[in-house]
Amino acid sequence: MDKNTVEKLIAKAKEAMENAYVPYSKYPVGAALLTEDGNIYSGCNIENASYGLTNCAERTGIFKAVSEGYRNFEAIAIICKGQLKASPCGACRQVIAEFLHKDSPVVLANEDGEYTLTNVEGLLPGAFTTKSLLGDNNDF
Ligand SMILES: O=c1ccn([C@H]2C[C@H](O)[C@@H](CO)O2)c(=O)[nH]1
Ligand SMILES: [Zn+2]
After folding, report:
1. Does the interface ipTM go beyond 0.90?
2. Rounded CA gap, 99 and 124, in Å?
3. pTM of the shown model
4. Cβ–Cβ < 8 Å for 44, 14
5. Euclidean distance between the first and final Cα of the chain, in Å?
6. How close is the Cα of 46 to the center of ligand 1, in Å?
7. How would you classify the pairing of strands 73-80 and 105-109?
8. Short-list 91, 82, 81, 83, CA closest to 123
9. Residue 110 and residue 95: Cα distance in Å, rounded?
10. Nearest to 39 by CA among 79, 7, 71, 4
11. Which residues line ligand 1 (CB under 6 A)?
């Protein structure tokens, strides 16, 4: 993925981060997903007084896209507040592995836009996926 695309995705993730609803943790996170046909979907974390109902930024972005008919993604960028770079939780790693390819780029950024580049396999090595269940030939 070229540097321009990385920076554009980080900028979109940062925009989404501004909308984070985080009265409890005060830890805003934003995510941006590039679809294979060049669209960008983004999401923020959305907390709840019943803490366990919180939705992370990554899953907000993926679920928005899938619900609008986009499920083929090329890359994801995630950004969070502070100097430490974003690191998706286990639930989000599993959802990312469901919808992105093993070798899809994953950009983990901090609020200054400094980032580490990894991929889905790096986030969740040996992930349990549709392939584990259905093999290579499935219509889904
Ligand atoms: O990658 C991450 C890690 C955490 N969170 C959210 C969940 C919760 O709102 C807050 C603190 O855990 O950060 C995300 O959205 N994405
Ligand atoms: Zn998460």
Report:
1. yes
2. 13
3. 0.96
4. no
5. 27
6. 9
7. parallel
8. 91
9. 22
10. 71
11. 22, 25, 27, 29, 45, 47, 54, 56-58, 78, 86, 88-89, 92
Q: Output the DSSP codes for 44-110.
A: E-B--SSGGG-B-HHHHHHHHHHHTT---EEEEEEEESSSSPP---HHHHHHHHHHS-TT-EEEEE-
pLDDT score recorded for residue 140:
67
Tell me the torsion sign for CA atoms 57, 63, 69, 72.
positive
Position 137 pLDDT exceeds 90: no
The pair of three-digit structure tokens given for residue 38, joined into one six-digit string: 């060049």
Cα 11 to ligand 1 centre (Å):
18
Q: Is 68 a catalytic residue?
A: no
Q: How confident is the model at residue 18 (pLDDT cuts 50, 70, 90)?
A: very high
